[in-house]
Specification:
- This protein is of the alpha+beta class.
- The chain has 2 domains: 95 residues, Arc Repressor Mutant, subunit A, CATH 1.10.10; 84 residues, no CATH class.
- Helices cover 38% and strands 10% of the residues.
- A two-stranded antiparallel ribbon has the order 1-2. Strands 3-4 form a two-stranded antiparallel sheet.
- α2 crosses α4 and α5 runs parallel beside α7.
- The longest helix has 16 residues.
- The protein is globular and about 55 Å long.
């Protein structure tokens, strides 16, 4: 008996996810919960999970997904908490996913005093000093300048500001594309196609474009998306 694996080395390796074996071998978890954890860990770190969306990608029903999620929550792999407005009203629910319960900042289910809400445009927190925004219009990087030109032609305004953390991620993701020999001409072609088919309701944020870049350029997924 033998196990046959896909080649994951080289520049043309397919997207894949590295997951801690201890988590997948946790005997306290059902195989359903382990599969759910694996799926969630295969998504970008800032990915938002919704029950209806999870159901679309499995043969499991909603009740089954809820059961698996409850297992993960009870054992510290998932932390579910409310995001409230300044009046204390719950606006949405967020999930923090932990590859290992040992990564949890503390045991149990801590109360989040100033939760972070991630949107398509920026990161909003109650800690105003943490929100340092950067205007991409001052950027000289040719890939970013090309994107901003198409953004302005399509939206007739400047691109929204981004946080320092988002800016660092944008540069790293573009460097990742360049490491796969994606030329400025290829980049512009995909940017043009992106805006040609962009719905009016879409704000055109470069972050969302880069989020799907591994599919557009058929390259390996950037680990820190």
């Amino acid at each position: 008996m033998a196990t046959h694996r896909v080649n994951k080395s080289g520049k043309h390796a397919p997207p894949f996810t590295r997951i801690l074996n201890d988590s997948l071998h946790d005997k306290r978890l059902s195989f359903k919960a382990r599969g759910l954890l694996s799926y969630m860990l295969s998504k970008p770190d800032s990915f938002h999970f919704y029950l209806d969306e999870l159901v679309k990608h499995t043969t499991e029903k909603k009740d089954s997904i809820r059961t698996g999620m409850k297992e993960l929550e009870q054992l510290g792999y998932v932390h579910r908490y409310p995001v409230k407005n300044d009046r204390g009203k719950i606006m949405s629910w967020e999930l923090d996913i932990y590859e290992s319960p040992s990564l949890r900042p503390q045991l149990g289910f801590p109360v989040v005093e100033n939760p972070t809400l991630i949107t398509n445009d920026l990161i909003i927190t109650n800690e105003k000093d943490l929100n340092i925004y950067i205007a991409l219009g001052n950027e000289d990087h040719p890939y970013i300048k090309t994107y901003l030109r198409y953004f302005f032609d399509n939206k007739h305004k400047k691109h929204m500001r981004v946080t320092e953390e988002q800016y660092t991620s944008i540069r790293k993701q573009i460097d990742h594309l360049i490491s796969y020999d994606i030329t400025i001409e290829q980049w512009e072609e995909q940017v043009r196609d992106h805006f040609d088919h962009l719905p009016k309701s879409n704000n055109g944020n470069i972050i969302a474009f880069l989020h799907a870049s591994h599919r557009r350029f058929e390259i390996g997924l950037y680990d820190q998306f």
